[in-house]
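Q: My collaborator sent me two sequences in one message, no labels, and asked for predicted structures for both. Can we handle them in order? The first one she listed is below.
A: Yes, handling them in the order given. First sequence, followed by its structure tokens:
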Amino acid sequence: MFYRQAGIHHTTYRGDRKFFPISFERWQIIVLFAIGLAAPFLLSPLYLKSYMLPWLIWTSAALGLNLILGWAGQFHFGYAAVMGIGAYTAVHATRNGIPFEIALVLAGLMATIIGSAFAITALRVRGLYLALSTLAMQFVLDWVINKVPAVSGGTQATIQAPPMRLLGIEVTSDAGQYYVVLFWCVLVTMFMLNLRRTGLGRALVAVREKDFAAAVIGVNSFYYKLVAFAMSSFIGGISGAILIFTFYHAVTPEQFTVSVSIQTLAMVIVGGIGSVIGCYFGVAFILLLPGIVANLIFALAEALDLKIGIELLAHIPSLLYGILIIGFLLFEPLGLAKIYANLRNYLLYWPFGYARK
């Protein structure tokens, strides 16, 4: 086995704080990144557009939500509304002649301003009351998007997104849009990995664990909670804009409802709160697994020649999918990231399991 810590000795703090101190993990990340770059040449356009693209976009959004939930310990039931703010801002900006790059920044800033404005009032409460406050934010923004024609064009209206242009060059190919999404996802991932090693990240964790104790040692809990909401809103706003320009190509109010907020929250919880790699696992589980389960059920029914109605076949995957989620939460509440960590720790010491005791 190459998964070993034997022979790895850290003589400096810099060496001890490397992202991947184990050489096997470094090569593993390099190989995965190379596969990600080669995905447009390895996968068909259907799989690239239907699976890889949404997986990377929603992973970016889940990482932004995890910043609040996992790092600062604050519930947020209105994250889809934050993404919607960014989406509508970017679409209106580009339709008025603003370059796409600047429109993305404006989307993040607008989401930050509105998200922080709600956070100033919401952060005066905590726990269930904070969750209800962010849910109220979702409902308020849903009403604004639906009822204000200047934002959405009216109830049930659809606004087409202009073609995406980078440095004046129109990006229409699936591969080009995929690379834009990949770049954004990698950028957010690197930011989150670095955040946990900074003073800001440690302050957020202190606030998450016990805000009163953090205040005793000089950490302003309200300030750091507000910073967490602002950074998370910025990531969510840009992720919402990229979702529209690369995947949906049109924006409607139904794309950012409360059900989408709950789905994003489920991605973080199932993947693992406070885990970066858990967001990748959670998004794959919530977003991609239902389609895979449905295809397996249909194939099994055809192979066994089962006389099951179409309507029942359509609901069986949802039933099994729900059972899987409940099973994960019952047997591993820390999410898929904890299962991955258990496997990693086992491989680090195998076959010398006694070394961990």
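Q: And the one she listed second?
A: Here it is, processed independently of the first:
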Amino acid sequence: MTRQHIRRILASGGALLAIGTTLAGCGGDDPSATESPEAKTTPESELAALVPDSIASDGKIRVGTDASYAPNEFLDADGKTVIGMDVELFDAIAGKLDLDVEWVPSAFGDIIPAIQSGKYEAGVSSFTINAERMEQTQMIAYFNSPIQWVTTKGNPKKVDIDNACGLTIGVQKDTIEVPDLQERSKKCEAAGEPAITINQYPGQDTVTTNVVTGKEDAMTADLPIAVYAVEQTGGKLELLGEPYGNAPYGIAVNKDETEFAEAIQKATQAIIEDGTYADILGKWGNDKGAVTAEQVQVNPSTP
């Protein structure tokens, strides 16, 4: 897929609305699983041998993902095929393990419970690694992203990141940006200022659309998502201020699947070492979030 093709998929705020409508039909209670059309990496027998038989027996990994978080994971123009940076990265990882990937669109907050229940064998959805998630799953680090604010072009509401008291800010539910906004709102109230109205939505596509249409004064998201939203909305949005913080992303697997987690760790290191990782990040414009092979750890310590 070329960069030009990617741009055509979300070329306007109207396209974002259309994708939000499509996702509502494809995700949730009765999601339709798809396989990515991207080419896979060449299997490595030593890595494939690390995959537990319970995972390898059917030759595929069933993965839950919130397909509204472009450019990391989102629906292609056909409304059903899941594509994106994370998709290509994990397809490459699975290829090293001699496994196919079955991508299943799901609500973001439903993915980890589905991993715990065994419905999904992995979750790949820009999950920020934190203590709570590491208590629920095994998490394998693969990318880093700070938080970025976005507002309507020209910032007509004069949004100030350090003083957003009384404003309405959109955010995707269950993301790391929610507690950040909640803490900022508490500081507003402690200073005698009105709280921040924090509107949480199941999908990032809805958040972005609401900023474009003026329903929200601004939004916060991971840096790749914020940059992509600005690019795809034809100049209707702009980045606000500088990115801050550090949100390490992790691939999630069942808490009991220690061997599987280690297999994914080593396969991730392999795609970094052979250059596949850098090629994928470069294609999606996310080079700055790259990690080294040594930083790919299972349940790493977090700040």
